[in-house]
Design goal:
single chain; iron-sulfur; 11 helices; metal ion binding; Elp3/MiaA/NifB-like_rSAM; eight-stranded mixed sheet; two-stranded antiparallel sheet; TIM Barrel; binds iron/sulfur cluster; 10 strands; 302 residues; alpha/beta
């Protein structure tokens, strides 16, 4: 059996899943801890030979696959040469039309512009990047290891190379105290960089007794110590509204493609912004008891 990444973007459900690294090398974001929680506490790089063997096995299962996704959290860590070899092997074996991966901002930033051009020439079409917030202080508190300036720079390099950007924004990351700043700065960065996609997630500080039984979210420690004041469910809906309202006439496709989102809206901002806002406002106009029942019904999951 080929090893497969533990986590993948929802839209890659039908893609070849190729595991290049195991876990997350950084593993420090306070809001995350997800790989340890799912049973992968360490980080390791798989050899190119191992990965090629997996690709051979995948070929037997899905000979005509046209899309592929590389994981786990930071599959560009092994470096450009390894990526080029894996991408070439994949493209020789399959009629690949779209090759994507997760990528940390700091990893892309260390690679620099020229290496990103090489990734593009090797066939990398899109990167899934945790933007999380656009606010430097919030990113620092959560130990994300990236700054808005780094995001601006790598976004320009990616655009120049023709690699699509899929950003993830995490509602609730500023807590109740800084939510407006969190969203305003996220909107500012999105307006400045105009990514192809923005995917909306909602912060959930999970406990150790979630279905996976791994360690709890590191953020719970900060909540207990009074260092983080969690956002309310309704607050995250207001965050979503503010985010969409603040985005300019972008061609960016925004989607709430995770079950934790209390209101699910999707659309291209320059075409569907008003429809998305109308849907959120219709939800907010429901009686309070209905909204509260809805928050309970949606619940939280990984
Ligand atoms: S958010 Fe990403 S970079 Fe941060 S710890 Fe989680 S997987 Fe690693």
């Amino acid at each position: 059996m080929p090893e497969i990444p533990i986590i993948r973007p929802p839209n890659e459900w039908n893609s070849l899943l190729v595991r290049v690294t195991r876990g997350c090398k950084w593993n420090r974001c306070r809001f995350c801890g997800i790989y340890p929680h799912l049973g992968e506490p360490g980080f390791s790089i798989r050899s190119v030979a191992e990965i090629k063997r997996d690709i051979d096995l995948l070929k037997l299962q899905h000979p005509n696959a046209e899309t592929a996704f590389l994981g786990d959290a930071d599959p560009l860590q092994p470096g450009v040469d390894a990526f080029v070899e894996i991408a070439r092997y994949l493209r020789n074996a399959f009629p690949i039309k779209r090759l994507t991966c997760y990528a940390r901002v700091s990893t892309l930033w260390k690679l620099r512009k020229d290496a990103i051009q090489i990734l593009a020439r090797a066939g990398l079409n899109r990167v899934h990047i945790g933007l999380e917030s656009g606010d430097a202080e919030i990113l620092r508190f959560h130990r994300k290891g990236q700054t808005p300036e780094m995001v601006r720079e790598i976004a320009a390099w990616l655009k120049d190379a023709g690699i699509e950007i899929s950003f993830y924004v995490l509602l609730g990351l500023g807590g109740r105290d800084h939510w407006q700043r969190h969203i305003q700065e996220a909107a500012r960065l999105i307006n400045e960089t105009e990514p192809e996609f923005v995917r909306i997630r909602r912060l959930w500080p999970y406990e150790s007794n979630s279905p996976f039984s791994g360690p709890e979210s590191p953020l719970l420690h900060e909540i207990r110590n009074g260092n983080f004041n969690p956002q309310t469910p309704e607050g995250t809906v207001l965050e979503l509204r503010l985010l969409i309202k603040q985005l300019h006439e972008l061609s960016t496709f925004v989607t709430c493609d995770h079950g934790n989102n209390y209101v699910q809206v999707s659309g291209r901002i320059n075409e569907d912004k008003q429809t998305m806002l109308t849907k959120i406002d219709a939800f907010l106009a429901l009686p309070e008891s209905d909204r509260e029942a809805h928050y309970l019904a949606v619940g939280s999951r990984i």
